[in-house]
Amino acid sequence: MTSTTTTVTAESSLVPVHTTGWRGGLANLVRKELGQWWGTRMWWIQTLIWVVLLNGVATVVMLEGAGMPAGEVVTEAVQTFLLMGAMTIGIGVVLTIQGAVVGEKELGTAAWVMSKPVSRASFVLGKLIGYSVGFLATALVIPSTVFVVQAQFLLPVPLDYGRFALAVGIIALSVLFYVVLTIGLGCMFKGRGPVAGIGIGLVLVGQFFKGMLPLPLVMATPWLLGDVAGSFALATTPDFNRMVPIIVTTTAAVALVYLAIWRFQREEF
Amino acid sequence: MQTKVVQNQSDPAAQAPSVQDTVIHTVGLTKTFGHVNALQGIDLTVPRNSIVGFLGPNGSGKTTAIKLLLGLSRPTAGKATLFGMDSIQESLAIRSRVGYLAQDPRFYTHMTARETLEFTARFFYSGPAEAIQARIDETLELVGLADKADRPTKGFSGGERQRLGIAQAQVNYPDLLILDEPAAALDPVGRRDVLDVMERLRAYTTIFYSTHILDDVERVSDYVAILDHGRMVASSPTATLLDGDSTTYELTVRGDEQAVLRALRTHSWVSNIATASQNGSTALTISVTDEGAAETDLLRSVIATDDIVVTAFGRKHFNLEDVFLQLVKEPRE
Fold first, then answer.
1. For chain B, how many structural domains are there in total?
2. Considering CB atoms only, which of B107, B131, B146 is closest to A13?
3. CA–CA distance from B78 to each of A191, B27, B30, B38, B139 (Å)?
4. Predicted structure pTM score
């Protein structure tokens, strides 16, 4: 440390932050979370992973369907893209975010941040906003845009872009659900094990066992959102009310946000 | 012996703090983890613009107490107020006026030192950007990290993290600095620098810091609070603590030691005399039961003795290590 005399900035020249209550510190935390995505190599690594995975598989399906009827190729490519997206992005979200809250609690950065004028709700919401924006952009919006470009060149008939956008919106709901779930589990547990285990378990159980479970039960989960998205994109009618999974997932996500904040407010550092 | 004196001074009612003059005030602050009583009814008062050393052996509850003050943890019983505000109900308002350095400070590793300070400053100030940057620059300069400002904190050593921790703690001109072991990870030069910074900040802020480096406390602290096994065993101005009680005096004489002893024993209020001879001088440690009588008559009666030269006389002065060891030893015994 230096003992040389430095010019001291007058405190009066600084404009104090007046945000209080549950939004205290939120803007700064969101800025920090977004900076972690877009100010580091994280964004292009995530983008690369999802474009290679989702668009790579979609390319293979489009090329292999060259001899098939036009409608079948489109159906195959769109369903593969949406169903794969719903499942793999869910797993990717859990794997990437499992330490977002738990890691900060373990390392001590959460305690450090909470020693500043920051509300507990802001800490949780900052993570939710940051990771949601990051995943939606890199794992969904960019690959979906690439898919549209691919479709123009490789599919024999054009896509209905409006329907496809609606379908992507349904997958976005699925992504948001898993972001909220993983952050929520991080607020509830002290270790990464339960967070990753429950999160990935939920995705995989839904993917592999949803056909064996009673439909009313499956409808009350986010597991059918891939099918719902496919039905919107291809203008088909599934054998279930497709609004039920949408409403249930939205309600569950909102409830999980409240639960996560409630639990984090009781956290002791 | 000292314990009794200082414990009397830790009585919150006796100190009668006013909100304007008091930054931290706790009453019966208690924290229990399962069956472990981490803090047992802490009464503490920290006056404005003072430097208070918070001492205690490892595991005595210092960090727990600090976390309660910051609202990072909830008390099981009792209450803490900072600036007259409740540590739980008004925690956000309190934290807007506090700077905190954790015992093992950790930061986001993808951020540089400058970005870490900007992130911290943005919780307190919305702009202007130039003024914030100027504040960050001078803070980096203050802690000697100007040349490492744009390095990610991932590669920082423990000492560098500590310096950055001190920087971020005072970037917002806090009214209260709470530092948990601020010099623990620093080399002797860094330790001296931290103490210099604390002394420079004394005029603007109140500093409450935990440490186990007793020399540091003796050098810069106005007040000392000592915690042991979750109990406050002393809370007092440093000078008072080091003066010890007023019932023990030290006297050094040359000459007829027996004559001095005879003279002292004529007083009914002299309860005990211990002697040690070295190089022709005799050091006497005299315990008395009547402070007033001792103040007026003790030295006078010794000087009146023939063939005696008094080379030193005064109230027994303790160093902090003596006091600390005695205070934290007694309950164990």
1. 2
2. B131
3. 31, 6, 6, 13, 37
4. 0.86
